[in-house]
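Tokens in:
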């Protein structure tokens, strides 16, 4: 996996849009680069952008959400409304761009973040929800978020500590660096699981002891069983006595109830007989007379119905006669209205025929008038539309004025056109042809003018470049002499320095011999010559301390002269390059000017004969004036055609107006109303006439039918009256009306009949019940014993008390026996559960013995040893690329707790890491950091690394050695390595830099140099 581009906007202190393209210069030439800037300027923000765009997570903050951004005030730059982070990377699957973004709504609230992933090779956005993008990036890259951070951001500083700390601290630090806290948690979880299982088993054992404490002793248990059996027998005897007493009490109670019911029934019989006597006296006679008359009920009903029917028919005859008079009056009114409005005389017999003929004629006239009106309106509208461009003062509706104005305009424009026609000879050539030829002339003229301007511009540019070449030549003058003088000065200073250094070496040698002389003592032989006297040892000369100062001064002067020479050489080289480049541009410009001038002379040869160099504009103005006049002639042609058309259509409009007036006059002679209301008026009158005629016919038919029916009903009524009168007189009723007075209403008659029947039924029911009760009482007296009911109840009460006492004792014994059984069953169940739990927990017990403890140290230490072995193996592989001298190993039993460096240059000597220099320690810690990257990436090739710590504490010599190591690493692995630091000396050694600069408002800017 390799990072290709980083794009972001408004992330932390980096306000605005920023772009870092690792596929362009200067990164193509230098894959080792520095990210520099003061503390707080946003150097690590670049790493935040990468992890945010890929995984929606940021180191130190974790997963990002709208709430997290608001709560922590992170990611989005202060006072900004939107932000995004985009990373383009290459992996085995192709090239992808992952984007994270967020923005503020119009309400001022922060919207939820958005993520998307684009396949740049196909140009397609992957169909993913925002929450799925981090997982897809993990799949494509082959690394999770934690693995990615450990693989790309090297924790070199942590490993520098790791190399020297004791074993106990080394384990904690390795756990932090590698993120292997899981092994400690596993050991703790195993311990807790085993502890929980053991506690559960102990709890069940405790329950067993509790149940055992509640068990009865064996002798007590047997006594309680015997006691329970005895109480059971007593209870059965008591229940038998209670059943016998209950039966006797029921018989005695029922006898009392039957005797009470008999007394009640006898009382009801007496009351019922009194009610029957009262009914016969008050209502019986009325019911009897009604029933006598009701024999003739059907005939009486028919008589009443016929009588009412005769009255109804008389009423219908009266109503129909009045309606006929009203309809005839309405007919006369309508005839008068038709005569007034339509000038038409109608009769009932010929109304429809005459009206249809009238409607047909008038509709034809109205249709003709409407057609003329439509044509008039359309023609007038068309005239207005045609006349609009010519700005007429009169309206087409005023045909006389409009025609006169058309003629005036026609005469005026015809005169102007004839003048232009003569001027441009338009009789022999069309205006359009004239215009086309003129436009071609104008086009050629404008092209010539444009080309002439371009040639003048080329001449001006060429002159500027020649002036620039002259200036560069002037700047070069004197630089070779300066360079020669500097070289001479450097050679002189180098000779002086060499002489001073030789002199210093001689004096240092003399100083060493002087030290030996000072150690010689009189009467002791010299080790070299054997002399016993040493006169030269006295008054020894002092070394020249001023030589060192002089040498340092010469070195400084040489350094300054070398810098001046380098600067002069660089300036001379740059000026020579500029001179060469400008001369090339002058040559190209001269050739281009020559070509342009030749093309111009050739293309516009004919045109140049007509105009001088300064008269392009005059000729162009003349041609443009001719073009305007030709346009005017063309417009006049069109306007003359239009005016002739208007003249013809104005005459048509006048004719339509006359025709319309004639038809309207014809309509007005035959219809006095508004023409627009003709259909409504005639349809309304026709509807009223037809409705009135229909009503008149209906009423005449109703009158005839009512008279016939009334006669028939009257005859039926007469025959029935004779028959009923004779029959009723025999019953003592002089007339039908008197007989009808004795008839009760149907509801009242039915109520009286029902009341009479209910009395009879009640009497029968009570007599039957009275007989049955007497028989039942006699039977009960024979069955019931002699003991009184109250005494039987006393005996029942005593037996119930005995039963309650028995059940209390029996229940207590049963409870004890049941508890004994349940406790024994519970103990058995718990023993089975304990055995099952022990079997199920066996693997947790074994795991706890192997890796479990309360702090998780046992399994964590084991896992850390394995991790350390793997890490050291990978680190030593990396060390081969960095140095052939050292290897890293774990300490032996006789060595201190810190890691050991094996020095291959010293025959494999084992040295404590603490004895290494800062630069050597950095190389080893860098190897460990790279090893962790290899371990985390699981053989995924990572071609982008960032080192975010460790440089601020290095001395200059160690820093140089460190940078040499990084350059070797970059060259051998072809990785892109970014060094994040604020150390100034890095800027001198690493040419390619991403520089961050703070302003006074808390924001930073980014620049790639």
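Residues out:
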């Amino acid at each position: 996996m390799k990072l290709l581009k980083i794009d972001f906007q408004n992330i932390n202190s980096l306000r605005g849009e920023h772009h870092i393209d690792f596929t362009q210069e200067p990164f193509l030439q230098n894959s080792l680069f520095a990210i520099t800037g003061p503390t707080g300027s946003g150097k690590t923000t670049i790493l935040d952008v990468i992890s945010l765009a890929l995984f929606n997570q940021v180191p130190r903050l974790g997963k990002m959400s709208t709430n997290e951004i608001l709560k922590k005030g992170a990611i989005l730059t202060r006072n900004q409304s939107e932000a995004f982070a985009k990373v383009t990377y290459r992996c085995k699957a192709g090239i992808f761009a992952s984007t994270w973004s967020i923005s503020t709504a119009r309400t001022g609230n922060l919207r939820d973040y958005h993520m998307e992933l684009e396949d740049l090779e196909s140009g397609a956005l992957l169909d993913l929800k925002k929450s799925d993008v981090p997982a897809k990036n993990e799949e494509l890259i082959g690394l999770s978020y934690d693995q990615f951070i450990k693989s790309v951001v090297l924790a070199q500083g942590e490993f520098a500590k790791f190399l020297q700390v004791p074993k106990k601290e080394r384990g904690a630090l390795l756990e932090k660096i590698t993120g292997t806290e899981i092994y400690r948690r596993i050991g703790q979880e195993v311990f807790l699981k085993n502890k929980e299982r053991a506690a559960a088993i102990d709890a069940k054992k405790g329950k067993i002891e509790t149940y055992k404490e509640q068990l009865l002793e064996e002798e007590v248990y047997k006594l309680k069983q015997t006691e329970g059996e005895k109480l059971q027998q007593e209870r059965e005897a008591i229940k038998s006595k209670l059943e016998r007493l209950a039966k006797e009490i029921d018989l005695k109670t029922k006898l009392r109830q039957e005797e009470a019911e008999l007394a009640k029934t006898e009382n009801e019989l007496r009351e019922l007989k009194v009610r029957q006597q009262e009914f016969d006296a008050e209502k019986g006679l009325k019911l009897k007379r009604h029933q006598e008359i009701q024999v003739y009920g059907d005939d009486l009903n028919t008589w009443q119905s016929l009588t009412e029917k005769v009255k109804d028919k008389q009423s219908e005859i009266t109503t129909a006669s009045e309606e006929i008079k009203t309809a005839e009056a309405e007919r006369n009114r309508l005839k008068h209205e038709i005569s007034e409005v339509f000038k038409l005389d109608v009769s009932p017999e010929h109304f429809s025929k005459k009206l249809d003929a009238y409607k047909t004629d008038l509709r034809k006239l109205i249709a003709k008038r409407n057609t003329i009106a439509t044509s008039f309106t359309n023609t007038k509208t068309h005239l207005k539309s045609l006349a609009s461009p010519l700005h007429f003062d009169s309206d087409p509706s005023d045909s006389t004025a409009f025609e006169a104005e058309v003629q005036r305009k026609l005469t005026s424009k015809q005169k102007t056109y004839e003048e232009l026609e003569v001027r441009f000879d338009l009789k022999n050539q069309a205006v359009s042809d004239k215009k086309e030829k003129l436009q071609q002339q104008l086009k050629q003229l404008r092209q010539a003018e444009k080309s002439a301007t371009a040639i003048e511009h080329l001449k001006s540019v060429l002159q500027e470049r020649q002036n620039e070449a002259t200036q560069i030549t002037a700047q070069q003058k004197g630089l070779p002499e300066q360079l020669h003088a500097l070289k001479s000065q450097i050679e002189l200073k180098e000779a002086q320095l060499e002489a001073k250094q030789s002199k210093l070496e001689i004096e240092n040698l003399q100083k060493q011999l002087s030290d030996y002389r000072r150690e010689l003592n009189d009467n002791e032989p010299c080790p070299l010559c054997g002399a016993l006297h040493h006169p030269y040892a006295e008054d020894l000369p002092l070394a020249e301390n001023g030589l060192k100062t002089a040498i340092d001064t010469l070195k400084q002067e040489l350094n300054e002269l070398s810098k001046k020479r380098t600067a002069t050489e660089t300036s001379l080289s740059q000026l020579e390059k500029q001179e060469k480049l400008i001369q090339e541009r002058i040559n190209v410009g001269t050739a281009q000017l020559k070509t342009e001038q030749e093309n111009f002379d050739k293309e516009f040869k004919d045109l140049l004969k007509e105009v001088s160099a300064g008269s392009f504009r005059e000729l162009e103005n003349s041609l443009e004036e001719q073009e305007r006049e030709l346009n005017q002639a063309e417009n006049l042609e069109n306007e003359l055609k239009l005016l002739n058309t208007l003249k013809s259509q104005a005459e048509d409009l006048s004719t339509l107006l006359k025709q319309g007036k004639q038809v309207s006059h014809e309509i007005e002679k035959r219809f006095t109303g508004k023409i627009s209301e003709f259909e409504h008026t005639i349809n309304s009158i026709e509807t009223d006439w037809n409705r009135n005629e229909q009503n008149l016919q209906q009423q005449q038919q109703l009158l005839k039918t009512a008279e016939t029916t009334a006669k028939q009903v009257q005859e039926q009524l007469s025959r029935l009256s004779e028959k009923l009168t004779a029959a009723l007189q025999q019953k003592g009723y002089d007339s039908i009306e008197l007989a009808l007075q004795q008839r009760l209403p149907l509801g009242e008659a039915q109520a009286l009949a029902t009341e009479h029947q209910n009395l009879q039924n009640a009497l029968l029911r009570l007599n039957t019940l009275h007989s049955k009760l007497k028989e039942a009482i006699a039977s009960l007296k024979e069955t019931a014993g002699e003991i009184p009911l109250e005494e039987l109840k006393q005996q029942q009460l005593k037996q119930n008390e005995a039963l309650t006492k028995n059940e209390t004792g029996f229940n207590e014994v049963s409870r004890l026996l049941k508890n004994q059984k349940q406790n024994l069953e519970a103990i058995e169940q718990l023993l089975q559960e304990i055995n099952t739990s022990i079997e199920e927990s066996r693997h947790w017990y074994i795991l706890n013995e192997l890796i479990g403890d309360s702090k998780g140290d046992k399994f964590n230490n084991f896992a850390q040893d394995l991790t350390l072995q793997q890490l050291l193996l990978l680190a030593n592989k990396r060390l081969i690329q960095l140095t052939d001298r050292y290897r890293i190993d774990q300490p032996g039993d006789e060595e201190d707790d810190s890691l050991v460096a094996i020095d291959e240059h010293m025959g494999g000597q084992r040295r404590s890491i603490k004895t290494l220099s800062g630069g050597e320690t950095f190389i080893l810690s860098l190897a460990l950091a790279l090893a962790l990257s290899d371990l985390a990436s699981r053989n995924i090739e990572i071609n982008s690394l960032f080192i975010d710590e460790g440089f601020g504490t290095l001395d200059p010599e160690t820093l140089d050695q460190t940078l040499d190591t990084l350059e070797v690493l970059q060259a051998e692995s072809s990785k892109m390595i970014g060094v994040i630091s604020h150390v100034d000396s890095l800027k001198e050694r690493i040419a390619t830099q991403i520089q961050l600069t703070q302003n006074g408002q808390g924001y930073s800017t980014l620049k790639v140099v």
